[in-house]
Design brief:
This protein has 13 helices and no strands. By secondary structure, the protein is mainly α. Helix 5 crosses helix 6.
């Protein structure tokens, strides 16, 4: 005889299932946007592609801020932390988009996904958290996977590889600062601060580099529409995190890495070689293990609106 399940339990189960589905849909949209961006940087300057992206995301952020009811970003507490967090993500966006000019999508995404490992490595100093031996082993395993991808003598461009490494480090710092700000600053304020800062900082080349010009409006509208896809993925993430704890969803992040491999292989005709695939597998295994080991400490938390999703 099966036990009678309470309506509250069934509601929680349905909510969790919906949250996971929303999260996976967000990852599909993020992967689609990365493919779109990779295609666009072949024709437009990375700063111009970022202009389209953050124009759309800033519009979404302002709507959320209006619903929050306080537009005074400059009057919020912890301005230094907010500024550092926003600048970190602007560097991520600039480096990632620039690296896509020369980097294969799968390898670029894999290097970017070392950010959670870097965050764990930094957490003893920046968050005062204790990292156990097993977690350090997972971090080293993930870094070994990255070395398989960027191995000496490989075909990856040095400049693009370095830009992706900077992007991963800055995204780890962004996540650390997001943790520091959790509960201190309203989530819509964090999101709007980030979006507007990225809109300004990532487009400095448009203002100060004469050779970077804006495309005609129909093409600019296409770039903004692509940015709306990325912004829609952000909204799906927010909806997912309202239903499911971040620790439950974190291991699913690596679905995006699988999607990047498929897109790179089928659309861009740039399949990773066997060694690179092995490296990606090591990064994914290490990341999933770290997410699992952190679950007891963080389960039940909800990510905030200020959490930027994958690139």
């Amino acid at each position: 005889m099966s036990a009678v399940q309470s309506p509250a339990y069934l509601a929680r189960r349905d909510s969790a299932g919906t949250g996971i589905a929303l999260f996976l849909c967000a990852l599909v949209l993020f992967a689609a946007y990365d493919a779109f961006a990779k295609q666009m940087v072949a024709s437009y300057a990375p700063a111009v592609v970022n202009l389209g992206r953050y124009t759309a995301i800033s519009a979404i952020a302002l709507v959320l801020l209006l619903r929050h009811g306080d537009l005074r970003l400059w009057r919020q507490p912890h301005q230094k932390l907010l500024a550092a967090r926003s600048v970190a993500l602007a560097i991520v966006a600039t480096c990632f988009m620039t690296a896509l000019v020369t980097m294969p999508l799968a390898e670029a995404t894999a290097i970017y996904f070392t950010a959670p490992l870097i965050m764990v490595a930094l957490s003893p100093w920046l968050l005062g958290e204790r990292v156990g031996r097993a977690q350090w082993t997972a971090v080293l395993l993930g870094f070994a996977g990255m070395l398989c991808i960027v191995r000496p003598g490989g075909s990856l461009p040095l400049a693009g590889t370095l830009l992706m490494a900077v992007s991963a480090v800055c995204y780890a710092l962004f996540q650390v600062l997001t943790r520091r700000l959790s509960g201190l600053v309203p989530a819509p304020v964090q999101f709007a601060h980030m979006a507007l800062a990225c809109l300004v900082i990532t487009n400095l080349p448009v203002l100060f580099m004469p050779h970077v010009t804006l495309p005609p409006w129909p093409e600019m509208a296409l770039l903004i529409a692509g940015g709306a896809v990325s912004g829609s993925a952000q909204l799906l993430l927010l909806a997912a995190f309202r239903r499911v704890g971040a620790a439950t969803l974190a291991p699913l992040n690596y679905v995006q890495l699988l999607l990047a491999v498929l897109i790179s292989t089928l659309w861009f005709q740039r399949p990773p070689d066997g060694t690179a695939l092995a490296g990606m597998a090591l990064i994914a295994i290490a990341g999933v293990y770290l997410a699992h080991t952190q679950r007891p400490a963080r389960d039940g938390r909800r990510a905030t609106v200020g959490t930027e999703g994958p690139a």
